[in-house]
Design brief:
16 strands, 329 residues
Length: 329
């Protein structure tokens, strides 16, 4: 039996399979190629079947660092997936499309709603990417280019080709993208305070949940993190900010703003919990952080692309109802 990589394959049945490499998988290391298509099989087992010679490329012996090319036939011996993965396959994520900001043959950009994880894991059985794959079974490849926190709304990029994925991820890593968020924070942000350059340190709570804190510059585990802040609108008791991140650290905006005395409205990890209760009574039921603007070079044409996702209605309505500060007498 032969399967063309890029289509849907049932890998839970214990039988020998021959997988034909397509253009999207060309150039990958054999170990990465197998792990991408043998979801639920432990990495140690993947390396074991390679070392034992049970995996073959065009009927020849190969190693973990062998590169697969278009048209190669890869023999995969019988393998069993974990019960957890088998259960997940039996109950796939519900298909769902999301508001589109851009789509072509290489990339799509969606306006992610708050409350939806970008992928499954950490107690979440599925996220945006799993739902998109279910909604688009004909898609040869759909992969997240970057991530947004579950409670953050706004622009999210998904690659439709492996070459586009690598190109865009390189741009994010080399800080060639422009990422600006809208955040509502407690109090009056000082207009002259425009640059936050404070290293961040990741750690775990006793229950295993991930947290981040500002640390000192000599901390060997601290990662340099830079955030640019611009006041967009002064409101009664709070400030709407345009926040541009020059580094993409975990929870960077949330921690940088909170550590400087201006937590984000509705933030349940780093926020002002008493203020959050007041905000909920006023109608704000979520964290006020929105991925507003994104710029990047198109992976195929290299032309600069500028996207914008306006504030979702629940955030815009809250801003509209908050009174501006009283004018000085």
């Amino acid at each position: 039996m032969k399967d063309i990589i890029g289509g849907k394959t049932a890998i839970s049945a214990p039988a020998v399979k021959w997988l034909v490499v397509d253009e999207e998988s060309a150039g990958q290391r054999l170990d990465n190629f197998l792990m991408r298509h043998l979801k639920g099989v432990p990495k140690t087992h993947v390396y074991r079947i390679i070392r034992s010679g049970e995996v073959r490329i065009n009927k020849g012996r190969c190693s973990a660092d062998s590169r697969v090319e278009v048209g190669d036939e890869v023999r995969v011996p019988p393998v069993r997936v974990s019960d957890k993965v088998a259960e997940k396959a039996a109950h796939p994520a519900p298909a769902r499309e999301f508001p589109l900001l851009l789509e072509d043959d290489h990339v799509l950009a969606i306006d992610k709603p708050a409350g939806v994880a970008v992928h499954g894991g950490s107690g979440v059985s599925f996220g945006v990417i799993e739902q998109l794959r279910q909604a688009r079974p004909q898609a040869r490849l759909l992969e997240l280019v970057h991530r947004l926190d579950r409670e953050t709304s706004g622009i999210l990029l998904v690659a439709k080709k492996r070459s586009a994925l690598k190109n865009l991820q390189d741009q994010f890593r080399e800080r060639e993208t422009g990422k600006t968020y809208l955040a509502l924070v407690k109090g009056e942000w000082p207009a002259k305070f425009k640059v936050i350059d404070q290293p961040l340190h990741k750690y775990l709570l006793p229950d295993g949940e991930r947290r981040v804190k500002v640390t000192h510059k000599d901390d060997p585990d601290g990662m340099r993190s830079m955030t640019l802040v611009k006041v967009a609108q002064k409101l009664q008791g709070c400030t709407l900010l345009e926040v541009t991140i020059k580094t993409g650290r975990t929870h960077q905006i949330r921690v940088h703003l909170a550590s400087n005395g201006h937590p984000i409205a509705g933030d349940d990890k780093y926020g002002d919990f008493e203020w959050n209760k007041v905000l909920q009574k006023q109608g704000l039921k979520r964290m006020f952080l929105h991925a507003w603007r994104l710029q990047f070079n198109h992976p195929a044409t290299a032309q600069r692309v500028a996207l914008q996702a306006d504030l979702p209605p629940e955030l815009q309505e809250y801003v509209d109802h908050v009174q501006p500060p009283a004018a000085p007498v």
